[in-house]
Amino acid sequence: MNSLSIVVPIYNEVENIPRLYAALAPVLKEMNREYEVLLVDDGSTDGSKAELDKLAQLDERIKVVEFRNNFGQTAAMAAGLNHASGDILITMDGDLQNDPTDIPMMVAKIEEGYDLVHGWRKNRQDTYINRKLPSKLANWLISKTTGFPVNDIGCTLKAIRREVAQELELFGDMHRFIPILAYWRGAKCAEVVTKHHPRRYGETKYGISRTFKVLLDLITVKYMIQYLVSPMRLFGSMGLLSGGLAALAGAATVAMKVISGVDMTGNPLLLLTVFSVMVGIQFFVLGMIGELGTRIYFEVRRTQPYAIRHLKNFDIQQKFPRAYDESRAA
């Protein structure tokens, strides 16, 4: 039976920590599996550290990762995933808006054969103007841009197979794009409707300004999933477009000079030709630098631009016939 690791980033949730434990403990006990709960303190300043220390002393299955400073939710999520030891990793918020009773359903979905299951807060209990409306617009844009069908990319409640989570590289504010990053690596994903509760204690850490961060992160994700392995496809295409524009502008310039005898001093088409040639060269150079950077990236990190689901018959030692008899050759 698969063991579980519950990963919860914590930032100034002193009132919610004991209530979170009280909500998680009976659910996990009823599942009758080995489990651990990793609470990652992201530099809290409200007394959360003391509450986490109490829980760690009370229950050895509570593991605490304490940051030296506030590094953000993505860093806290990455630390939790990196320190988790379970077969299935569950991520959730520490504000009790995610419901722990959804965990068994999501684990069952994973054991049906999925690699990642992410929640959909269909009946979201948040304010409409500054939370629900921006979220709907962002989810629509993300789905159209990446080609990944999703209704709620921002839901923290997820279940992930350990081997898939280990492949994730989370930086900046990329935690909300975990399903897309996993899907890009070939993970089989499913979205399920989950319960959602209004925040009762503490203050929300998000505002409408987060929408702009999501848009910037979306550009990064789009580049990663489509052009990371071969940047020349992007920059080379832009270079070809610039070169084509330069050719058209140059042909028009020559025609104006030869046919009409127009003075080319300061002619806009001549300037456009020169500018397009220069820009095109720069795009090709960026593409070559990007290709070199990609090769260095994969070599230094000792990773491959592919993900293997299964290997079959590799545990069987095979004896291959020699190409020639070594004794005769001697």
Automatic annotation (TrEMBL):
Listed transmembrane segments: 234-256, 268-292
E.C. designation(s): 2.4.2.53
Keywords for the protein's UniProt record, in alphabetical order: Cell membrane, Glycosyltransferase, Lipopolysaccharide biosynthesis, Membrane, Transferase, Transmembrane, Transmembrane helix
GO BP, sorted A to Z: lipopolysaccharide biosynthetic process
Pfam families according to UniProt: Glycos_transf_2 (PF00535)
Gene3D superfamilies listed in its UniProt record: Spore Coat Polysaccharide Biosynthesis Protein SpsA, Chain A (3.90.550.10)
Gene Ontology, cellular component aspect: plasma membrane
CDD domains listed in its UniProt record: DPM1_like_bac (cd04187)
Source organism, top-level taxon: Bacteria
Record-annotated Glycosyltransferase 2-like domain positions: 5-168
Molecular function terms, GO-annotated: undecaprenyl-phosphate 4-deoxy-4-formamido-L-arabinose transferase activity
Keyword Transmembrane: yes
Protein name: Undecaprenyl-phosphate 4-deoxy-4-formamido-L-arabinose transferase
Source organism of this protein record: Polystyrenella longa
Gene assigned in the entry: arnC_3
